[in-house]
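Recap from last week: sequence in, structure out.
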Amino acid sequence: MCSPSKGSGISPAAGIIRTMKTDDFDFHLPDELIAQFPLANRADSRMLYVNHTHPELRDTAFRNLPDYLNPGDVVVLNNTRVVKARLTGIKSTGGKVEVMIERILGTHQARALIRASHAPVTGSALLLENGITARVEAREQDIYTLHFIHTLPLTELLDQYGQTPLPPYIERSATLSDTSRYQTVFARESGAVAAPTAGLHFDEAMLEVLRAMGVHVTYITLHVGAGTFQPVRAENIEQHVMHTEQYHIPEETIEIIRQCRLAGGRVLAVGTTSLRTLEACAQLHDGRLVAGTNETGLFITPGYRFRIVDRLLTNFHLPRSTLLMLVSAFAGVETIRHAYRHAIDNRYRFFSYGDAMFIECNGR
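Predicted structure tokens:
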């Protein structure tokens, strides 16, 4: 597992966070490096290889991923499926409103983020397109509880009338192609409002190559919430509170990881969501993986001790984000700063439709 790197702001003896500022995870990113569209082919992205024990970075391609894996290794993918979570309309007072479903709570109830010139008040109505009315039942910080008034259940409403919830940094409307491209090829369990974007690089051909070489491809489910796009507003990172997300780990996945460990193999988490799921479960059960469904609000920051994951495939993340803090915890703050400077200088594509980074942490 990774150990804290020099200059990470960690006390090596205690393994705890010295006060780290959100500003420590800021960087300037030229707008033109934010990928606005996916590449023509999923697997054509570039990949930056990072090993926290060696300063040298390696520019490679995602298609070379098999070169970094051995028979018996495990690749863990998040098979959540993105729902069409964005709805638009007006408030009862006439102002424009955009609703981003964060989690479906029941047949007609959901938690949501709301974008409007003035925040709607409890009890008010949102008059959404296609004759959909939503009543504001409650608000907790920036998350609203909405009750939808319609003959159709909410899942069907979203499927028929919702829009693909592209992230706010993609400055265009969703197109028909986004319906498939902002979805992994292995998406099965409906419930996410954001894609597990590291998984977007995989096509069926890559999965077949991995299986054919003896790599075990297995799955967890974490339904990514809209909170993944929320910036850290607290000055000190330990003051930030994560939104909770639901996850499920099948018994089959746990057994595959157990056998991998016994044989001396390595566990590659594809995406921060897969990593958080495995680590949250291990934290909850004293280092063990236990099958089942649960909730996690785990906020992984420098100083965290990883118990399950050896390696991470991830995209390049937003400044001041919890995801950047997670990868900094995994590889070391200075290692990630070095990698991001290299990625910017070498014109890598950033964020959801961008390029990949493969982080090697144990030197095995």
